[in-house]
Amino acid sequence: MDSNQTIPTTTGPLSTTDTAMLEVLVPGYGFVSRILMSYLNFDVSAYLQVLVSLAVFGATARYALFALWAHFNEFFVSRAEIRLDDETFHYLMFWISRIKTNSYWSDSDSDDEDLDGDEDDEDETFNGGKDASFDSYWARVTTRDKYKKMQFTPSEGCHYFWYKNRPLMLEREHRDGGMWYVMNNERIFLSCLGRNPTVLKELLAEAQQAYVERDSNRTVIYRGSRFAAGQSFAWYRCMARLPRPLSTVILDQEQKHDFLDDIKEYLHPRTRRWYTNRGIPYRRGYLLYGPPGTGKTSLCFAAAGLLGLKLYLLDLNSTALDEDSLSSLFSELPRRCIVLLEDVDSAGITKSRTAKSPSTSTSDTPTSDATSKDGSAAAASTAAKEGDKKGGITLSGLLNVIDGVAASEGRILIMTTNHVEKLDAALLRPGRVDMKIAFGYTSEADIKELFTSIYATMDTDIARNRAPAIHSNGSARLPTNISAGSIAKTEGGIIQNSEENNGEVKKEKTNLQDLVSLRSRISDLASEFAAVIPSGEFTAAEIQGYLLNNKETPELAIKGASEWVQTTRDKKRAMDAEGEAEPKPEGEGEGRDKA
Ligand SMILES: Nc1ncnc2c1ncn2[C@@H]1O[C@H](COP(=O)(O)OP(=O)(O)OP(=O)(O)O)[C@@H](O)[C@H]1O
Description:
By secondary structure, the chain is α/β, with parallel strands linked by helices. 45% of the residues lie in helices and 13% in strands. A hairpin with a 6-residue loop joins β5 (219-226) and β6 (233-241).
């Protein structure tokens, strides 16, 4: 065979160089054209010009379409951008998840779905059943929980749907630069045809209304945190709870009402005007102090429920929280809300402003008198620098956020502490803390009130036609607010229940005299109990904990009370002795009294 003979590598009229160039531009061209030639006797190169023209035309048309689409969007489409850190995002997702059967996304009948769980529903499950035994109730609840309703929301990409006879487009996407599972990078675009965005505003308003209505009778709690490491701090809705009645917080009536009256006065529109006219920053701060378990948080939560305010919780102990994050969190607060900073004494912002930052210790480090008395200046700036270096909040940083030039207005700030004596005078000065409320160990009257609150049946306990559980020994539960009307209602409930449940409920039938005598019996038992428990020695949480162990049997609670007092005392002594014997590691045990 002639070694110079070349095997044809091209097909048709194209030269080898042309084919090589085409191969670069269209990988596989040589191979495909050879195959076509060999098997179909089809010469691609003869149509090359047509093909190239088509490709160029296609690319140009594509480019033109994109440009046209962009211009169309710019001039004929209204668009709303909603980011994850915007509360509207949650409104929209909630609204979408509740769309009815004919909707694009959902066949859900999730209208009744309560993401936070609904105590009333569970109550219904219990009462509504023919058999009111715990076992059957529990079987129903666990079965229901297994088939928890699903929430359908749109996946990533574009979705089209009709709203009020208008076609809308919803686009869900993750932003570039983030890990796909970091939801914080998410955003939603909502678009409609035309320059008028009214339909979008209406949709968002409807979504907001649905979302807010869900929380209508609840206290919504937000927490300042990060979605993931490396993200910035933001307020995240963590739960919505039924409000705690103020009457259930045991505290001196005068103190309780002073506190509430002060908040109401502050929230009054004339007060805001008054502040503004006089150039006084419109802010109010409260300090609740006392041993742990004495009701500080409970009072705050009850006040938020009573006034219908949202509660914003922030943990100053977080080492990831720096001063920039703190100030941005405060700047995002709504106009009216309660911000709760718990255990401020353990957040490294005590009198130790010149000492360590909280990232290294939460303990209090004594400093010179001058430092602790002075509210700002050099010491604070040193502390601020420390904080900057190591992360965490310094006292000066906190003071700036509370009432610096750029501090937010309108919010109610409540700080709680177990060690008021450790707090710097600068933090406690009027303007930062305008009212202080001391919480202490229970008095005799408090003990009686606690006892009654545990063993008396409240109006809400006998809701939905439930009869008060009255035991044959008379140690039964009884309504706290007995009135002729409520008795009539209750009796009605009993009769109704009697028809349904016969024997068991018949035993519970009672009359006005029975209820009144039971009430006085609980009152007598409360006095008996208070006589055994020394006043000024135990916290409400401790006594409540003990009573809860005997919540159906007040007599047993009284019987075991003196033994409980002794055991609790011994435990405390042992803990104290242990604490004194062992040198505590730095920071440990801070923020807790010997309770
Ligand atoms: N004064 C009180 N009235 C009613 N319940 C109380 C009272 N004090 C404590 N409790 C009960 O004790 C528990 C703890 O109360 P709470 O969290 O309000 O105490 P705290 O003073 O905020 O404690 P800490 O300082 O540890 O945060 C709650 O279940 C609450 O119901």
